[in-house]
Amino acid sequence: MLTHDAALRWIARWDRQQEGYLPDREERFTALIDAVEAAGRPDPLVIDLGCGPGSLSARLLERLPEARVISVDADPLLLGLGRAAYPHLTFVSLDLRTPGWTESLGLDGPADAAVSTTALHWISGPDLRKMYAELATVLRPGGLLLNGDHLETDDTTPAVARLERAVHDREARRAFAGGRPEDWRQWWEAVAADPAFAELHTARTTAGADHHGSESSLLSEHVEALRDAGFAETGTLWQRGHNRLLCAVRD
């Protein structure tokens, strides 16, 4: 059985392996939550898209304790980990690629913001367009989409794109000069070996929740999909190399 304390330890380990790819991960979290806070409501309704074990959702509620956060993911193991660690959060098992996913959120009004970090690039271009279009139907006018991810510009500014990756790589080498933490695959292998996750690991395998590669990593693809979905403005609020926080404002 996965205990609360064990779940917290595993999420701390998850955070460390994520920082191996994103040495400025906490800074990006801070910028994202700053934007939610600056939108003006002390009690915003926020949807966390592809929440994983709840790292962003938990930080949002620490900063904005009056907020209501609905944390959405399709991975049974990560959801189980988050539920054990953060019983005060609302986790919902949904595949964002399935039309009608918003109907299962239990919303009693329009959301003020939708947030995501290092998740939406796993959705293919056509599914991304449909997901953003459906998201727009449950955001209030002026509501925000805040997406922190590695978003590339090779299709529009290839020379700048190479420099962005170089800046990120150099920062990572400085941050981990003494050795990198375990990587994504090593974390999953360790989880699979822990008997406490046996039931959740079986559920994950049955659900086919494994990622199979990045599908929509171009910034332009996200911007075009958001504009077509009815978001009036898009822009980068924070950036470090090709790691950026994309913001879109609902029309």
UniProtKB/TrEMBL annotation:
GO terms for molecular function: methyltransferase activity. Residues 46-143 form the Methyltransferase domain. SUPFAM superfamilies: S-adenosyl-L-methionine-dependent methyltransferases. InterPro entries: Methyltransf_25, SAM-dependent_MTases_sf. GO terms for biological process: methylation. Keywords: Methyltransferase, Transferase. It comes from the Bacteria. PANTHER family: TRANS-ACONITATE 2-METHYLTRANSFERASE, TRANS-ACONITATE 2-METHYLTRANSFERASE-RELATED. This is Class I SAM-dependent methyltransferase.
